[in-house]
Automatic annotation (TrEMBL), chain A:
F-type ATPases have 2 components, CF(1) - the catalytic core - and CF(0) - the membrane proton channel. CF(1) has five subunits: alpha(3), beta(3), gamma(1), delta(1), epsilon(1). CF(0) has three main subunits: a, b and c. GO terms for cellular component: plasma membrane; proton-transporting ATP synthase complex. GO terms for molecular function: ATP binding; proton-transporting ATP synthase activity, rotational mechanism. This is ATP synthase gamma chain. The lineage of its organism: Bacteria, Bacillati, Actinomycetota, Actinomycetes, Micrococcales. Keywords: ATP synthesis, Cell membrane, CF(1), Coiled coil, Hydrogen ion transport, Ion transport, Membrane, Transport. Its main location: membrane. Produces ATP from ADP in the presence of a proton gradient across the membrane. The gamma chain is believed to be important in regulating ATPase activity and the flow of protons through the CF(0) complex. It is a peripheral membrane protein. One of its GO terms (biological process) is proton motive force-driven plasma membrane ATP synthesis. Residues 255-282 form a coiled coil. Belongs to the ATPase gamma chain family. HAMAP family: ATP_synth_gamma_bact.
From TrEMBL, chain B:
Produces ATP from ADP in the presence of a proton gradient across the membrane. F-type ATPases have 2 components, CF(1) - the catalytic core - and CF(0) - the membrane proton channel. CF(1) has five subunits: alpha(3), beta(3), gamma(1), delta(1), epsilon(1). CF(0) has three main subunits: a, b and c. It comes from the Bacteria. Residues 4-82 form the ATP synthase F1 complex delta/epsilon subunit N-terminal domain. The gene is atpC. This is ATP synthase epsilon chain.
Length: 297, 92
């Protein structure tokens, strides 16, 4: 009987130390999420300026650019999946991967060949374990991506998109990431990045203020050449930032739940331990009493 | 007198924003200077130095490594991939 009590005490102690770890991780995620959201905000002026400029060019000239035209010479498509480097974030990575798998199935059903690009160790380990081929992966800074990484990813994917089909060129680029709506809602989303559809984000020109007639320096083609890759880079950067913020929010929530579960467990074990102690005392008393009875009779 | 509304933004943050009387930037085919009332322009920038003369205070200089510049209705937006300020911006 005394053994029972000791087991409960041990469990309470280990759950208590787990609870401390969960609490610490929750606080760390909570403090980092502020920074992640600040980064998302800080990157918006750049994105807005680019979107304005791209829509200005698009409304003034319809110039066919390789990045905006559909490719028909290959059925290969690239999919970029943004997940986290570490677990402990609830269903965050799992739901991004599930969304990616759905997309891949759909693309395969359309007769396309999927080339996988991954960010985050969770996705890498998921696909490596299943023996799937990974074209390239980036790991190490899923919760605080820098612009350099986004640039590297974008340049790799743009090079793939512009490459001829016999050198591994792809006809489309899809991105699976988790959109940060607010602290409690993060939605896995799929967007088709390439070929670009510039209609999105084109501000409806109000009648009073027509879009100005721009001079292009040196020429519309060169301006578009400089703008579009930057636009893609900035979109990918913003996807990564959103994914990072979502990861931290998911982690904070998961760790909060874990802390509460640990508290519940501690309460249950404390009750069981008390019960065991009481049972032991009751048994001892009845042993003594029956012993005394046996002597008296 | 008319003034320019200037925004200097890098990929990950806004560097400087305010009123200025003159902006000059390294366009791909030579230096471009913007004064109030300039016609709308979208120009590609190469690596070089951006100089902003604010309405009040000392001039601002920054080295950029490429980007583009847009002007319309006296709103100047300089978008650069990376900017390192050489003078002026740290004081504000």
């Amino acid at each position: 009987m005394a053994g029972q009590q000791r087991v409960y005490r041990q469990r309470i102690r280990s759950t208590q130390s787990l609870k401390k770890i969960f609490r610490a991780m929750e606080l760390i995620a909570a403090s980092r999420i502020g920074k992640a959201r600040a980064r998302v905000t800080a990157s918006t002026p750049y994105a807005r300026a680019l979107t304005r400029a791209v829509s200005a060019v698009a409304t003034h000239s319809d110039i066919a650019h390789p990045l905006t035209t559909e490719r028909r010479d290959t059925n290969r498509v690239a999919v970029l999946v943004a997940t986290s480097d570490r677990g402990m974030a609830g269903a965050y990575s799992a739901s991004a991967i599930r969304e990616a798998e759905k997309l891949v199935d759909q693309l395969v059903a359309e007769g396309k060949e999927v080339v996988l690009f991954l960010t985050g160790r969770r996705a890498v380990s998921y696909y490596t374990f299943r023996g799937r081929e990974i074209a390239q992966s980036w790991v190490g800074q899923s919760d605080a991506p820098t612009y350099d990484v986004a640039e590297d990813i974008a340049d790799t994917l743009l090079a793939r998109f512009l490459a001829p089909s016999d050198e591994g060129g792809v006809a489309e680029l899809h991105i699976v990431f988790t959109q940060f709506v607010n602290m409690v809602t993060q939605v896995p989303r799929v967007i088709r990045m390439l070929p670009l559809e510039v209609v999105e984000g084109v501000a409806p020109a109000s009648k009073a203020e027509a879009l100005p007639l721009y001079d292009f320096e040196p020429s519309p083609e060169d301006v578009l050449d400089a703008l579009l890759p930057r636009y893609v880079r900035s979109r990918i950067y913003s996807c990564l930032l959103q994914a990072g913020a979502s990861e931290l929010a998911a982690r904070q929530r998961a760790m909060h739940t874990a802390t509460e579960n640990a508290e519940d467990l501690i309460r249950d074990y404390t009750r069981l331990a008390n019960q065991a102690r009481q049972a032991e005392i009751t048994q001892e008393i009845s042993e003594i009493v029956s012993g005394a009875d046996a002597l008296a009779s | 007198m008319a003034q320019l509304d200037v925004d200097l933004v890098a990929a990950d943050r806004k560097i400087w924003s305010g009123q200025a009387s003159m902006v000059s930037a390294p366009a791909s085919e030579g230096e471009i200077g913007i004064l109030p009332g300039h016609s709308p322009v979208l120009a590609v920038l190469r690596a070089g130095e951006v100089r902003i003369t604010p309405v009040s205070g000392a001039g601002i200089r920054g080295t950029i490594d490429g980007g583009f510049l847009s002007v319309d209705h006296d709103r100047v937006t300089i978008v650069a991939d990376a900017v390192s300020m050489t003078a002026g911006a740290s004081t504000r």
